[in-house]
């Protein structure tokens, strides 16, 4: 069996230790212990309702945890802090949602440049130029003046990625970024994600795109019923899953 070698402590961008979370009496995350190393791409997979979204949302504190700790570069994300501090911390963690969540009343370039201006105090013309470069990078230079409703789902999701990148986060989180897309648009979003990975971005992705996981992930976390049951390289996970529930999950995909 392939056991992933633990990263040295100082390379652990994200560290989750003994994380528990309940919704009321219902435990959703049960003793999560895991880390993401700098430059690592981790794909989280597991059945629907297993806690994948909750887990990833705790990392930028869109969800509170019941106990345990989560650190980003050694800083406790769930420590008591003021809204301003929390916003500053969140701006260091890019988040891409299933449903894009673009601002409908803002143009594409405004969607991308808004947070650097509002949260980081970047000069509007500087943020605008940078937004145009990011739109070029995701293949949407010609859509800068368009509004979200005028774009396809795949284009909107690429804008959402550019918007997250505009804050220059050291870490990007993705929660099923292609699940709401028509099949023909999945590839263009995965291509952008692959290029980010190739550039060394630290990424944590919840996805059902097992081709992407195989090709791009450094490690897979398999989660079921609120527990990480297996972490492995894609080679090991897909060829020789260890946990019976992982075996069943993979068998059901085929
Ligand atoms: P996944 O993303 O793997 O499908 P989720 O993290 O969305 O799973 O959900 C895990 C479990 O927590 C599910 O049983 C879901 O119904 C429950 N859950 C999610 N969000 C809430 C909430 N806000 N309140 C109560 N239960 C929730
Ligand atoms: Mg989910």
From TrEMBL:
One Pfam family per UniProt: ABC_tran
Domain annotation ABC transporter: ranges: 14-250
Keywords on record: ATP-binding, Nucleotide-binding, Transport
Domain of life: Bacteria
Family: Belongs to the ABC transporter superfamily.
Name of the protein: Amino acid ABC transporter ATP-binding protein
PROSITE patterns to which the protein is assigned, alphabetical: ABC_TRANSPORTER_1, ABC_TRANSPORTER_2
Lineage, uppermost ranks: Bacteria, Pseudomonadati, Pseudomonadota, Alphaproteobacteria, Hyphomicrobiales
GO molecular function: ATP binding
